[in-house]
């Protein structure tokens, strides 16, 4: 395993992350009212922890360099985790005081750092040194049904991801109400499910910190390379889970 967590790690959470099934239900709600209720239970909560990567920092080379992976995981993701914990502590204090003004003022930080933690935790499991190629089984059938072909899907997700203005993410998500796959773009660290209702299957981080050291400003080259390390087993597993 590449790196130990920064905080004391809840072993059950860590195990779920390594299986790619981490649950972040507290962030899945879309309304403010729904957001506040779970946070009201913070008295008994554990701190969030940086999950270990399920592979070494250099394992995705030559497609993503070890230097990028190390900084991305141990600095960027770690910062989201630390700032999320700080924000939740402040939120807990504001709730205890009945200070609604402070609660409201903390929500952008919660969205940004909570989203950063959710998104990166999914992202690491979406990648694998044994990835690439094409998905199989039900996921492939659904891709063909909803996008016409795998090539068409790949082209569309690439285009949406390349086209994100500034920092953000390209996503393949599942629309549970309509029973179909959808492609979406999210700005900054907006979490897919919390802001669109789509269940995340595959996320592509297009923040410059994800590629600049290797690909400079040429985001399309990074997008071209990342398909070589997509963990289709993980994406398929997520698809199977959200259909249940
Ligand atoms: Fe990132």
Automatic annotation (TrEMBL):
Biological role stated in the UniProt entry: Destroys superoxide anion radicals which are normally produced within the cells and which are toxic to biological systems. Destroys radicals which are normally produced within the cells and which are toxic to biological systems.
Keywords: Manganese, Metal-binding, Mitochondrion, Nitration, Oxidoreductase
Pfam families assigned to the protein according to its UniProt record, in alphabetical order: Sod_Fe_C (PF02777), Sod_Fe_N (PF00081)
Oligomer status and interactors: Homotetramer.
GO molecular function: manganese ion binding; superoxide dismutase activity
The protein's required cofactors: Mn(2+)
A Gene Ontology term for the protein's cellular component: mitochondrial matrix
Protein name: Superoxide dismutase
Domain Manganese/iron superoxide dismutase N-terminal, chain residue ranges per copy: 47-128
PROSITE patterns recorded: SOD_MN
Catalytic activity: 2 superoxide + 2 H(+) = H2O2 + O2
Binding-site list for Mn(2+): 72, 120, 205, 209
Residue span, Manganese/iron superoxide dismutase C-terminal domain: 135-238
Cell compartment(s), UniProt: Mitochondrion matrix
